[in-house]
Specification:
The chain is α+β, with helices and mostly antiparallel strands. About 70% of the residues lie in helices and about 10% in strands.
Length: about 575
């Protein structure tokens, strides 16, 4: 009988111990080092993808063929993909296994296209410089213009048209007419026939360079279109999001089993209370292990919060990328003003310099006193003719207008750069006195490329300055204005910005007449990662971050929307926050 009882006790103890061991095994910490390595590899691929886009833009905008070439990032991308594949096999992550194959193909395809694009772009630049240098050499062989030789002037004019057509085709590609370039080349070739054999050879060399330019630009544009259609960024964002969700779910399961473990330990203590003295040491050991598990889970939670902070930073960089793209687009127009003005001024300076030289010669003859009257009359006639030509062509008036155009262009660029400089303080959380009207004006300047077809109404009131972190408040304004612009239809879009003093603070209303927000979606818009946009067009963190910023400033943000009629966001901020130290942190 005692033997049977002992066997039963041993069996129960074995079952209890087995259950305890099972729960303990379920609370083992996740290998965060492996997870962090995977996150770092995803960040590396994201950075490489962004660098490729920057390399493409730099290749298209910089003209010097001898510029320092962008590094080949293909090897780094392959290494990161190999690391992800190995990590996926070790960890068995379903989030990685789903899209890793397609991601690898997209990354490697983009790498190949980028390298081909660099090669074609370098060839186009070299060909363009060959056209320009060849035109200069042919112009030198044709002789100096302005000496009474009409054919020389005709050659110089044809060469200028040829260079302009080549530059236009380089910058505009398909938008420029290639037949215009070939026509200009044919005119130069025909004029060179009557100069010399060297001129004909030079014209043939220019023809070859033009054919190379046309060929390289056509291939370059085709490659640029293909690169633009590849979108590995959204795949990376989706994979990162799924991976973090998978990690979060794993940690939640660990936490749940930790709770089960605690409850089970408590039940064992109650059930075997009469063995308390003998089990005291075992109980203390168990408690120590629980503390260790708690500490490890707390550390895991801290890492999870750091990952959230990295996602927030990613949202900031996404906004900054859109902003930089808009600024680059906006600065092209005033830059064209300045470039065209300076080019024309350079041409006119040659005429003015020639007139000044003739005037100086005339003065020298007048100072000489006893000079041949025929020589004096000839010099006077030449000088008068040049001055009359300048007056007839209204060169000075034209130069004045060109200077005005150049100043207008530089003013536009100064305004754009000023807005960018104001917003560039995003990473500096200095708390200072700030007028919200200035912040809205700066944010509108940065979002101008999105508001070209939108009617923007400013109803700024006389408001006092508030104490805040201007960079953070500007981020809120830019996010709300961007969302409003994206919600508008293709025509008749209108955004109204209103500021007024309200109840010991300042209220800012941003109203649009867009499509509105459905009632079932409205309660979720401030939730992290919630978005109604297409994949790749939004992270779901913009409004969540804005809500936190306003909340940290002691303010509040409200939204009212009616589907089909529009949305109004109202941000209220106190004149002085309750805790400025928290903002600075």
């Amino acid at each position: 009988m005692n033997t049977l009882r002992h066997l039963l006790i041993a069996l129960v103890a074995l079952v209890l111990v087995a259950a305890l061991a099972f729960l303990y095994d379920k609370t083992q910490a996740v290998d965060l080092r492996e997870r962090n390595d995977i996150a770092a590899l995803l960040d590396t691929l994201r950075e490489i993808d962004g660098r490729w886009d920057i390399d493409i833009l730099r290749e298209r905008t910089e003209l010097d063929p001898n510029q320092l070439a962008a590094p080949n990032r293909t090897a780094t991308a392959r290494k990161a993909l190999a690391g992800l594949s190995a990590a996926q096999q070790r960890s068995g992550s379903a989030a990685l296994s789903e899209g890793l194959g397609e991601l690898g193909k997209a990354i490697l395809e983009k790498a190949d296209l980028v390298e081909k694009f660099k090669s074609e772009s370098a060839g186009a630049k070299t060909a363009l410089h060959a056209v320009i240098s060849g035109a200069a050499a042919l112009g030198a062989q044709a002789g100096e213009p302005g000496k009474g030789n009409a054919r020389q002037k005709e050659v110089q004019q044809a060469l200028s048209q040829l260079v302009a057509a080549a530059q236009q085709h380089y910058w505009l590609g398909k938008a420029a007419a290639p037949l215009g370039l070939e026509t200009a080349a044919g005119e130069v070739r025909e004029l060179a026939t009557g100069i010399s054999k060297g001129a004909r050879d030079q014209a043939s060399a220019i023809d070859g360079a033009i054919h190379l330019l046309l060929r390289h630009k056509a291939v370059e544009q085709e490659l640029f279109t293909k690169v633009s259609s590849l979108s590995s960024g959204p795949r990376l964002d989706k994979m990162t999001f799924s991976f973090n969700r998978e990690l979060e779910a794993t940690l939640q399961v660990k936490e749940l089993f930790r709770v089960y473990l605690l409850a089970y330990a408590a039940a064992l203590l109650i059930g075997v209370g009469y063995l308390g003295v003998r089990l005291k040491a075992a109980n203390e050991s168990l408690e120590r292990r629980v503390v260790e598990r708690t500490r490890e889970l707390s550390e895991a939670l801290r890492h999870l919060k750091e990952s959230e902070a990295q996602l927030i930073q990613s949202e900031k960089m996404s906004s900054l990328g859109q902003m930089v793209a808009g600024v680059a687009h906006e600065i092209n127009t005033p830059l064209a003003y300045v470039k065209n003005s300076l080019g024309t001024v350079s041409e006119r300076l040659t005429q003015i310099t020639a007139a000044i030289e003739h005037c100086e010669k005339l003065l020298e003859l007048l100072r000489a006193g006893n000079v041949d009257s025929d020589a004096l009359n000839r010099q006077f006639a030449q000088t008068s003719a040049l001055l009359a030509q300048l007056k007839q062509q209204r060169v000075l008036t034209e130069l004045g207008n060109l200077v005005k155009d150049g100043l207008y262009g530089t003013g536009e660029m100064a305004e754009i750069v000023g807005n960018l400089k104001d917003f560039s303080r995003l990473d500096r959380s200095k708390v200072t006195s700030f007028n919200l009207n200035d912040g809205l004006t700066s944010s509108l300047g940065l979002a101008r490329h999105m508001l070209k077809s939108v009617k923007v109404t400013r109803q700024f009131g006389e408001i006092p300055p508030i104490t805040c972190a201007p960079s953070q408040i500007n981020q809120v304004f830019l996010n709300l204005i961007t969302n409003a612009a994206q919600a508008l239809g293709p025509t008749d879009g209108e955004i109204t910005l209103t500021t007024l003093s309200d109840n010991g603070g300042v209220a800012v209303e941003i109203t649009d007449n867009g499509k509105g927000i459905p009632p079932e979606v409205l309660p979720k818009i401030f939730d992290p990662f919630f978005t109604t946009k297409e994949i790749g067009k939004g992270t779901g963190l913009g409004l969540s971050i804005s809500f936190k910023i306003v909340e940290q400033h002691g303010g509040r943000i409200k939204v009212a929307s009616e589907p089909g009629k529009g949305t109004r966001f109202t941000v209220w901020l106190p004149l002085k926050p309750a805790a400025e130290a928290e903002l600075a942190a």
